[in-house]
Amino acid sequence: MHNSLKIFLFTLLVFFHAEVLRAAEPLRFVCWNLEWFPGKRPTASEKEAKDHMKEAQAALKKLNPDIFVAVEIRDWAALHELVSVVPGLTVNAVSSFYDTTTGKLSSQQVGIASKLTCRGAWWENWQATLPAISRGFTFAVLEAPQGGLLMIYGVHLKSNRGSDHPEGAKNVADMRNDQTRQLLEHRKKIEVTFAEQGILGWIACGDMNTNHDNQFPLCNVVKLMTDGGLYNTWANTPKQKRRTWLPPDGSPFEATTFDYIFTSGLKKNEAVVIDASRKISDHTPIGLLIEKP
Of 49, 95, 245, 247, which sits most exposed with the smallest number of CB within 10 A? Predict the structure, then answer.
């Protein structure tokens, strides 16, 4: 056999071996509410925005996710600059939600970035089934290295603003419950659309602004998601180990779970809270290893 052919075949063998090993490795998934990013407040100065960007970039570079869902992102440009420090991480989609009270583009968007081939990505507003329903979801179809498609949802459900009295609490809960039902209905449509293209699994994540600890008794988001066939990756995690929202010093509120990752069709791994500087956000990043069952 000619030497050049031997070298070519050896190189090819090494390449395929590396690809097999890569396909066998779990994917690193991270979801993070970055608190009015960049700047930590809607009226942040240029310096505040630059400092926030620098701190978040350093943290994200260490996390090195394969798939990253970012909540409370100002716009596409902000997410693009943030993920640019992680080799191979590319923005797939960023929402453009409008604030229902001001009629202006919101400073709190949801974005998806990944190192995977993206088949398609977009965002949608929630249907106006209830008065003042806000935001929507961001969605991406990604090709998994191990074969098949990963369907990724990023959401930011209704905040708890206005829930400090019985009528307000009911309105907020009704809105979050309705948003969740709409997400599950969209999933059914996508399942039919991609039925013949090999769906490996589903991930829906983000800041749900609620939990399954009966802290918000009128809100059924987690139950609706699990009844809809999705696995709660906090299901077996003690409450004290999944505090994803950390109130500022002096706040009357306690740390709690607001951020979730739900999966379907994947190995039922538990999510983890990832330690990060409080200077970056009042929410912690949460992570998950994505594997076949």
Answer: 247
